[in-house]
Amino acid sequence: MSKPPTLTLPPAARAHRLATARGEFAVHEAVPAGPARGTALLVPGYTGSKEDFIGLLGPLADAGYRVVAVDGRGQHESGGPRTQAPYALAELARDVLAQTAALGAAGPVHLLGHSLGGLIVRAAVVRDPAPYASLTLLSSGPGAVCADQQGRTKLLVSALEAMGDDMPGIWAAMRAMDPRDAPAEEPALADFLRARWLGTLPEQLMVTGRALIEEPDRIDELAAAAPGLAKLVLSGESDPVWPVSEMDAMAHRLGAARVVVPGTEHSPNAEDPAATAAALEAFWKASEESSA
């Protein structure tokens, strides 16, 4: 899971709820001091939340962008129904399109998805690429996660199916199975991670977990749906979820720009937000200039 470098919003940002045609979503929104060059919508990954992008908000607002990071349906502070159908990727993609419409952006809109969020935003673009000036797939691959991650995710989904009403118990078991860096966490971060887990609905985790295991390669479909859309594949230099070589090949197939953030793994947005923000700023400005 992504671990935000801080839990404190920068001065340019605020937390609020975004009302859309498909319900309300908890967001963090940062705005520049002057007129915005464009608007960015950031969609988090599996077990993640809007807080995973906190480190990007200040630098991107300073660069002139309005930035909105969202908790998806059933994720952390957004809430959702206690049935499984609303968490299919196609439904979450419709949520992204509704969030985009609700932003009411006058200028270009840049869409970004991290990990599972990458699968969601590409489904949104396949459904309707028209609202977007660019698409960034951040630490997200062409289809299902690697074999090792499939095994881990199957275990988690099975636990949720068996004991989803005991989310505290599942959390304790997860931490016991993977305790490598828990002792180094600050108490406030440890409390946040647990609260985020408890706030995320088991139905959302079950359905999206299965999607990570079963999602087919849809890169050709994405390329055909949005041939002129500026695209970026951004990742760390290693990744335990999708091999970096798969992301290299995906970028080639999409004709996308490719950026690797040195010294990072699955969450460059949290591990080196300054370098990640600089890469996004450069890409967004290039895409705006090429379309002018």
Describe the structure.
It is a single chain. With 292 residues, the protein is an alpha/beta fold. The protein has one domain: Rossmann fold, CATH 3.40.50.1820. Helix content is 45%, strand content 17%. The chain contains 11 helices and 8 strands. The chain has an 8-stranded mixed sheet with strand order 1-2-4-3-5-6-7-8, sandwiched between helices. The protein starts with 12 loop residues before the first strand and ends with a helix.
Secondary structure: elements and pairs:
Elements: E1 13-20, E2 23-30, E3 38-43, H1 54-62, E4 65-70, H2 89-103, E5 109-114, H3 116-127, E6 134-138, H4 147-163, H5 167-177, H6 187-199, H7 202-214, H8 219-225, E7 230-236, H9 244-254, E8 257-261, H10 268-271, H11 273-291
Parallel strand pairs: 3-4, 3-5, 5-6, 6-7, 7-8
Antiparallel strand pairs: 1-2, 2-4
Question: What can be said about this structure in brief?
Answer:
The protein is α/β, with parallel strands linked by helices and 292 residues long. The chain has eleven helices and eight strands.
What's the architecture in CATH terms? 3-Layer(aba) Sandwich
Number of E-state strands: 8
The 3D shape can be described as: globular
Q: Give me the strand/helix succession.
A: EEEHEHEHEHHHHHEHEHH
CATH superfamily: Alpha/Beta hydrolase fold, catalytic domain
Determine the mean pLDDT. Answer: 96
Q: Which class best fits the helix and strand makeup?
A: alpha/beta
Task: Note the total helix count.
Answer: 11
Low-confidence spans: none
Helix content range: 40-55%
Q: What is the rounded Rg? A: 18 Å
Distance between the termini: 38 Å
The largest sheet, given as strand count, sense and whether it forms a barrel, is: 8 strands, mixed
Sheet-strand content, in percent, reads 15-25%
The CATH class name reads Alpha Beta
Q: What is the topology, as strand order, of the major beta sheet?
A: 1-2-4-3-5-6-7-8
Query: How many distinct folded domains?
Result: 1
Predict the CATH topology: Rossmann fold
